[in-house]
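In practice, a research group might receive sequence data for several interacting partners and want a quick structural hypothesis before committing to experiments. The following worked case mirrors that situation: the sequences arrive first, and a predicted assembly follows.
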Amino acid sequence: MEAKVVNSKKEEIKKVFLESGLEVKPLYTYQDEYKIIPDFKEELPGRYPFTRGIHPLMYRKRPFTIRQYAGFASPEETNERFNFLIKNGQTGLNVAFDLSTQCGLDSDDPRALGEVGRVGMAIDTLEDFEIAFNGIDLDKITVSMTINGSAIVLIAMYFALAEKRGYDLKSLRGTAQNDILKEFIGRGTWIFPVDKSVKLVVDTIEYCAQNVPKYSPVSVCGYHIRESGANPVQEMAYAFCIAKAYSDETMKRGIDIDEFASRLSFNFDIYGNLFEQIAKFRAGRRLWAKIMREEYQTKKEESCWLRMIAGGGGAGLTKEQPENNIVRTAYYALISALSGTQTMALCTYDEAFTIPTEKSAEIALRTMQIMIEEMGICDTVDPLGGSYYIETLTNEMESAIIKEMTKVDEQGGIIQGVASGKVQEAVSRQAYIREKAMQDGKILKVGLNCYKKEEEKRTVEFHPYNIEAANNQVKKLIKKRAVRNNVLVNQLLATVKEDTLNNANLMPSIIAAVKEYATVGEIIGVLKEVYGEYDEPIFF
Amino acid sequence: MKVLLAKPGLDGHDVGVKVLAHALKEAGHQVVYTGLKKSIEEIVQKAKDENPDIIGLSILSGTHQILCEKLNEEMRKSKLNIPWIVGGNIPAEDVEALRKTGALEAFPTGTQIDTVVGYISNFKK
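A structural hypothesis for the assembly, expressed as tokens:
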């Protein structure tokens, strides 16, 4: 699908290039792989450099976690959907928040107009978390939160909730997306200037290393960078540069790499050429292990693991003939499993139109379950390992990712590249090139630029915007502000401000504030007073 | 033609608007892009400052109707009369409502970039 086809009369076959720019030969033999890395046969899953998987038995021991993205309207409605998914065999939660929550605004903020509960659930105070996770055992169901700009507040809320419900933070698991650097590149829910934003991420890493050691405070997202237009090599390269930047900043606080490296996780995208994606993940796993061991001198085995959620892939789906997306995501699921992912999530076939219905969420869930139960996907580890093509491509992808990372380093590093807008510019240029290639028919997309249907009747059912739930959310917030201990809340907010001014780790003071029902908007507001807001460099 | 491209509301999806900006520039138009997360008031102010021939809003979170009504209202208040179009995650059945609200045209996702560029290039005040 991504292949650029050039006619070459001399060879009388078409030349094929992958989206990452690598050329594909019509045949691979034992000579290809040996040429580049003679010792690949010694590679074993569960052993450095983990090309074939981070665990020796992988899915034979336990299948990947199924973690569909869900959340809409108020915490009440979302709790219902959570329970529906769990009842149907989902083994983890992936929480969607509305844009006001993601941007650190309360539901009654004028800038939240029309956004409350629209693309995810609205959260204003800890009370909303208490409702959303009611009846869900946080020991059995691990919770992942898709939250970035305001992540420090939502992570604090999650820990406060766990403590209130009697869980031991020392054994609490879960993940926050909390990758702000990628928000500047794509997705856009940034709030503060780049350096302050990174400081907040490092606060959460430091706090977790010391207090919640099993929690993953960051999930570095190549995903959204790829969705924004980057090719698979850029996706991996930028994600690794970002993960290294967070690691460097954390180590500057005197924290040993082995205290937090194993809790860094990744979120990657899947769409496009099947083999290119599988090689991307195998190469990524090997390269990340090498970076951690050789460059960062980690001592613990787990510090070298590339733990990931892989799936998606929204940008690969079409609004045209939407049922075809069920087929596409089934292929994405296969790619993800063949790539040795830890966790999987699929976009639903109607996601290009609307919030998934219960039915479409169920189809996505069943797609993964069919693969696990019927296809033998869990029977053996890295079934494509040893394939001449896959091994060669894995090696080539690794070299290409290293080259792209070097390019970022030469331009002053990823933080500088994001602050200046250079990285955003590169990604948006790539998006334009891809769009043009689609328009020119160089990249084919079934239903969009080939095998089109003239007249299409829409078959997708729309999820209506629940304005009543939004209004109730505002009412609940106003009531909560009236009944909480406001003297105490104001004191605690003052402490947050003091800690911000003193450049202290903000996790303890924010946890204390959310426990007394300080709102997301109030806490982010205090931080804005000190940090100011991000001024976006305009590049396209 | 001078085109003001704007991202109102909190939606951070800017791939489409940036691709369009590229394409318009390549077609010889002058493009001013506001960047993400601008209030309607800020966009109207920008329109006053820049005096574009046409304004293009990009909205993918589903809030198009509310934001477009607000744009109309603010333009009226400022006695500004600049034609505007909107693009984004717009269901086909919302297109007519947006036209009634005052949009010259509404382009749902999946629209070919050339179609939008062509529309703007052929547009006469």
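Before designing any experiment, note the following. The longest strand of chain A covers residues 264-269. Chain A has a mean pLDDT of 94.
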